[in-house]
């Protein structure tokens, strides 16, 4: 009997140790519950054009969680709208521009043209920012592969002019409208329009400021862009390009949707960091794409 009791005691003790050992290996139910409720959101960086502290429309990136095109557009519109829920994710050097309380009544895409129908609050834009509002919308959404142009409606009526200045707008808004435009025209002869992207650095954030220049110039557009990137920009002193002044464009080949640019050895001269080289390539690529409306840019040095 004593022997049987001892056996039972041994079994019970062994079972208790087993339970204790298992509890060491696995967290208790409360801890397990907490871990199950910890979520991680995978995002995608998406270009967006916001207003910087100097009121220039600037290209930066935000993290978006949507991949379906209409949902992504709705998310980007939230970033662009004043006092919306996504404003908290914007660096303080940028400002949204769509007037507060503006609602999106409908969205539609047909033949790569995005139709946005805003509520009447859209017309409350500040007089000194109405050009920037249109530029911000056009450049943000035409950066998406699915969109080539915009139709803007307010309360289902096509926006044909700016709310304050009454400046006429084309029915379909494309990048042909330009961005942060500078006019340097003396007559209507030999007018060239080019867009150049410059680097800006503020509060440890690097971003890009595109500048469209309308000028009387007999040179080729590609040559104009490269020359502008080698010289000082027309706007802020904190804009830069890192492109060496000795850089020369040897030749280029323009295909249907692609251009190949050949440079001399000075293209990367003086650029010690790989990041600087990438930024030089990026501003050339963005500038040529916008100016010539091509999809692919190849640099050869």
Structural notes for this entry:
Strand 9 and strand 10 (205-216) form a beta hairpin. Helix 5 runs antiparallel to helix 6. This protein has helices at residues 2-25, 29-36, 69-80, 130-141, 221-230, 274-292; strands at 44-52, 57-64, 94-95, 104-110, 113-118, 149-154, 157-158, 182-184, 191-202, 205-216, 239-240, 249-254, 258-263, 296-300. It has 301 residues and is an alpha+beta fold. It is 28% helix and 29% strand. It is globular and about 55 Å long. 26% of the residues are buried. The longest helix has 24 residues, at 2-25.
What attributes does this structure have?
3 domains, 301 residues, 6 helices, single chain, disordered N terminus
How are the elements arranged and paired?
Elements: H1 2-25, H2 29-36, E1 44-52, E2 57-64, H3 69-80, E3 94-95, E4 104-110, E5 113-118, H4 130-141, E6 149-154, E7 157-158, E8 182-184, E9 191-202, E10 205-216, H5 221-230, E11 239-240, E12 249-254, E13 258-263, H6 274-292, E14 296-300
Parallel strand pairs: 5-6, 8-10, 13-14
Antiparallel strand pairs: 1-2, 1-3, 4-5, 6-7, 9-10, 9-11, 12-13
